[in-house]
Amino acid sequence: MEKRCSLCKRIVDSETAEILAMGGFGDPKYICDECAADIETATTSHEFEEIKSAMSRISDKMANNDIINRTTLSAIEEIFTDAKERAQRIKDGTYDFSEDEASVPEESLEVPEELRESDEDRALDEKENKPHKTLNLIIDIVAAAVLVASITFFVLWIL
User: Average pLDDT, stretch 106-112?
Assistant: First the structure.
């Protein structure tokens, strides 16, 4: 099934396209490279006019394609709200660009040592799961036997 950009309705490759938002039932709302670039410009540019132009292009695309999907609209509304505030602060000269450069330190992405699974934890989990594995094997064998018996019964009954 071909996927389309949620903003301009161009065909996109769902394997490589960026996701704007996740809709109901885990349905991703994809965007094409051009729309992604406009969103990137609107949210990261240092120039007021560039932000304004990018937001205008996105709005025009949405208006021309009659975008009414609530998930898409709410995602764009949130992006536009932040972009408008940022653009206004840039225009006023009160925006601190060091806020853009603040990022999560690499070491904070690692799992702390005290939360990592140890060899003892793995051994304990394996020991606790051993009776369950045996029980699951017995249930699987009984279920297979019942299935074979049912199929045999229906085949003999039909003949």
Answer: 59
pLDDT in tens, 1-19: 678 999 999 999 988 899 9
Q: Render 66-133 in DSSP notation, one character per residue.
A: T---HHHHHHHHHHHHHHHHHHHHHHHT---THHHH----GGGGSPPGGGSPPHHHHHHHHHHHHHHH
CA distance 18 to 31: 6
Q: Quick check: pTM over 0.85?
A: no
CA gap 38, 11 in Å, rounded: 17
Two structure tokens written together for 82: 């932040």
Supply 31's token pair: 């965007």
- Residue with token string 């799961």: 129
SS3 content of the chain, % helix, strand, coil (to 5): 65, 10, 25
C-alpha of 59 from chain center:
23
User: Band of the pLDDT at 102, cuts 50, 70, 90?
Assistant: low
Cα first-last separation, the chain: 43
